[in-house]
Amino acid sequence: RIPQKVPSMEEIQLPSNIKEVLHKDKWLILVTWPTGSGKSTTVASLIEYINQNMAKHIVTLEDPIEFVFEEKKSLINQRNVGKNTLSWTRWIKYALRQDPDVIMVWEMRDLETIQSTLTLVETWHLVISTLHTVNAPQTISRIIDAFPPAKANMVATQLSLSLGMIISQRLIENIDWTGRIAAREIMLSDPAISNLIRENKIPQIFSVMETSLQKWMITMDHSLARLVATKQISIQSRSEEHTSELQSQDDL
Question: How does strand 57-62 pair with strand 27-32?
């Protein structure tokens, strides 16, 4: 069930430092993980922060529209593929004529969409989108590998200049199994990571993230460890707990 109220960044425990990225004029923010990981909720909370705090023109392309935004400081136009536009790429092509400041492309699903989305960033827009990848290096590789090999170096350079942040998240049952909480890997593009992307040394990105925790980057392992340490999730899975309960009943 999708709630009528868009949750705030604080309610879904997004780091407050992410707000700094949302004030950029030219940036690409990606939220990743396979279906069912709460990507749409995270994207909605990012857009809602902009809506509440900045006077921007926000344009979204969704399939389908999930969260419906109420305009506050920003002007928001939401478009549904198949109803308000015939295709993703057609809408992306003509979105620039609406003079937007922030553009949300629901999914970078194929070569044409990826190429169009990168063009939107290059034309000086803050762009938020999603991919079905599970970490930052895989996300970057997925974008570069979508292009023909002859264009790989050009795309890597383009991505190194436009990529701002990747949030990879998965939902895990909380410690008392009354709901779910997101564990997030967050990569912020800095000069070291941009250089690795440009030189196609993608596997080394993890080592940079490991040594950059003070810059509020975090790996998935660190995120999971933090949730366990703060007693928000349990190391023991629900199925394991259920097995333990059955064994205890047999012992009795």
Answer: unpaired
d(CA 95, CA 101): 11
Average predicted confidence (pLDDT) for the chain: 89
83 phi and psi, to 5 degrees?
-110, -50
Alpha helices in 36-151 (DSSP H): 39-53, 88-95, 111-122, 136-145
Contact call for residues 48 and 56 (beta carbons, < 8 A): no
Quick one: pLDDT band at residue 27, thresholds 50, 70, 90?
very high
Task: Return d(Cα 125, Cα 121) in angstroms, integer.
Answer: 5
Q: What is the pTM of this model?
A: 0.91
Q: Who's near 146: CB < 8 A, 6+ residues apart?
A: 110, 111, 114
Rounded to the nearest 5 degrees, what angle is found at the Cα of 236, between the Cα atoms of 230 and 238?
Answer: 110
- Which residue type, as a one-letter code, is found at position 144? I
Sign of CA dihedral 158, 160, 162, 166: positive
Q: What is the C-alpha to C-alpha distance for residues 193 and 202, in angstroms, rounded to an integer?
A: 9
16 SS3 class = coil
Average pLDDT over every residue of 16-36: 92
Measured at the alpha carbon of residue 131, what is the angle toward residues 1 and 90, in degrees to the nearest 5? 95
